[in-house]
Design brief:
The chain is mainly α and 343 residues long. The chain has a single domain, classed as ABC transporter involved in vitamin B12 uptake, BtuC. It is 69% helix and 7% strand. The protein is built from 15 helices and 4 strands. It has helices at residues 2-32, 39-57, 82-87, 89-97, 99-121, 131-153, 172-176, 187-209, 211-221, 223-228, 233-255, 265-280, 285-302, 305-310, 314-329; strands at 60-69, 75-81, 169-171, 184-186. It has a two-stranded antiparallel ribbon. Strands 3-4 form a two-stranded antiparallel ribbon. A hairpin with a 5-residue loop joins strand 1 and strand 2 (75-81). Helix 1 (2-32) runs antiparallel to helix 11, helix 1 (2-32) packs across helix 12 (265-280) and helix 12 crosses helix 13 (285-302). One of its GO terms (cellular component) is plasma membrane. This is Branched-chain amino acid ABC transporter permease. Keywords: Amino-acid transport, Cell membrane, Membrane, Transmembrane, Transmembrane helix, Transport.
Length: 343
């Protein structure tokens, strides 16, 4: 039982990332009808927002500390971050320690701007083009963004630490009545799951309970009719593209301490996220979230040594096997709508 609970927790962790990326993908497809293969790059850019904020906060200047000597008796040069000199050693160190959460404030306007520029500068020219053209151009854009990040940040993963208060693990076993250390789970992964739930809930609430969201949902169902009512639905869809980019970026920001950012991490998640979207049902927001968590949990169970010893390599293909089975029995996915991508 303890092993099962641990794998469920691992699955919720992976599923949170899948669900957030798939949610953004579905928002873009549901509103604009665009298959965006550059969406994984937005996740990567979000992760590097964390790296950028961390580097900015740790910019330092050198001072000579007369109280410290090297082996020759010369005073040592000490690097002091500017934030520590401005706010004091304790407050400055706390700001640096919380660089990842602070990066959320930096990432939101950055990702909204990136999404707006991407949609206005490129995507809008492919609205009425075949999906194959959309895939090719957005995939090419993803490669360009990937290489730009590689040029500025290098090819190696960049460790990005979580705040000290969230380092370490939580003992679920004791809380549930198991032996101590039976179910140990990192604090930051729990934070990530809670953050993902908050973002997902926020997006659904925005679409369900605001006038803007209601108009967007109406436009997703019948774009022409909404346009005939005198509503500029195109502008609202552009804003939704920016929101989708922000969702992917925030997912990347908070994932940085879990998986050190690297230039190809967007591609690593992209294919899996598209599988999640297809399994959940093209254009279905609840389906994307449901499939994200479902496939994350299944992948976690497939990675157990007991399972891999019976079926070697199953952890690498389980998601695709499940996708095949679901699409054979439910061609539109778990919660897909009739007519989406069926013309």
């Amino acid at each position: 039982m303890d092993a099962i609970l641990l794998q469920i927790l691992n699955g919720l962790d992976k599923g949170s990332a899948y669900a957030l990326i798939a949610l953004g993908l579905t928002l873009i497809f549901g509103t604009l009808g665009v298959v965006n293969f550059a969406h994984g790059a937005l996740f990567m850019i979000g992760a590097f927002c964390s790296v950028t904020v961390q580097r900015i906060l740790t910019i330092s200047f050198e001072t000579v500390d007369e109280t410290q000597k090297d082996f020759l008796g010369n005073p040592l040069k000490v690097k002091t971050p500017y934030v520590e000199s401005w706010f004091g050693p304790e407050t400055g160190a706390a700001i640096i320690d919380w660089s990842v959460p602070i990066a959320i404030l930096f990432a939101i306007p950055v990702m909204l701007a990136v999404g707006y520029i991407m949609e206005r500068g490129l995507i809008k020219h492919f609205y009425k083009r075949p999906h194959a053209d959309q895939i090719l151009v957005t995939f090419g854009l993803a490669i360009v963004l990937q290489e730009v990040v590689k040029y500025f940040y290098g090819a190696n993963p960049i460790p990005t630490g979580a705040p000290d208060v969230f380092k370490g693990s939580f003992d679920f076993g004791v809380m549930l009545g198991f032996e101590a250390n039976a179910i140990i789970y990192p604090y930051w992964r729990l934070v990530y799951f809670g953050f993902a739930a908050l973002i997902i809930g926020g997006v659904f609430s925005f679409l369900q309970f605001t006038t803007f969201g209601m108009v967007v949902r109406a436009g997703m169902a019948d774009r022409e009719t909404v346009g005939l009512l005198g509503i500029n639905i195109d502008r609202r869809f552009t804003i939704m593209f920016g929101i989708a980019a922000a969702v992917a970026g925030l997912a990347g920001v908070m994932y940085a301490p879990i998986n050190s950012p690297n230039y190809h991490m967007g591609m690593d998640f992209l294919v899996l996220s598209f599988v999640v979207v297809v399994v959940g049902g093209m254009g279905s927001l609840p389906g994307a979230v449901l499939a994200g968590f479902l496939l994350g949990i299944l992948e976690s169970f497939a990675s157990m040594n007991e399972v891999k010893s019976l079926i070697p390599g199953i952890d690498q293909i389980i998601i695709y096997l499940v996708a095949i089975l679901i699409l054979l029995t439910r061609p539109r996915g778990l919660m897909g709508r009739k007519g989406v991508m069926e013309e």
